[in-house]
Amino acid sequence: MALSTSQIQQLNAQFKGIPPEEIISWAVKHGNTPVVTTNFRPYEVAILHAVSQVSQDIPVIWCDTGYNTPKTYKHAEELIERLQLNIKLYVPRQTSAHRDAIMGIPQIDDPRHEEFTKQVKLEPFARAMADFKPDVWFTNLRKGQTALRDSLDILSLSKDGVLKVSPFYHYNDTQLDTYLRKFDLPNEHNYFDPTKVLANRECGLHT
Fold it and tell me: Which ranges carry the Phosphoadenosine phosphosulphate reductase domain (predicted)?
């Protein structure tokens, strides 16, 4: 889907306050190869539910770092079954056990941290995007998460020119909690991202 910067700005103004399902329906109608990405972190259930209500055929790319908590894996399996998600699993080329023996989980100031992030997150993600070649990418990015995300909007372009669609961009936690209660959806807060260290730090996928 080719949109100019001015068109994206106009659409963002129109979409503010519009229900997520309507934004998703618009993107599906105008796109050719949509995907949604997830890691089953807190509140991811919202975008997964909203997309699945519009179309259950859309590939749901799960880049599993291999370091999720048991609760997160159980949460993921529950949502995959309940929402009938079209899951496409991507994992690092090296097992977490092997990596733990070689480098462990490097701290942010460790020179190996960049390579660690590449192995467990960036490479599997790049492989997935190369396989599916999406023109529309549904995400659960929200304003207030990081400085970078504050500069985005409901619609934005990735560095590769893919249209990122974040229907819940203007939602805060309270509004998402209301959405989850409305549809009786489970949430999962016991999530661990080995690459971020800090909650408000970008992981690299959206930079």
Answer: 34-187
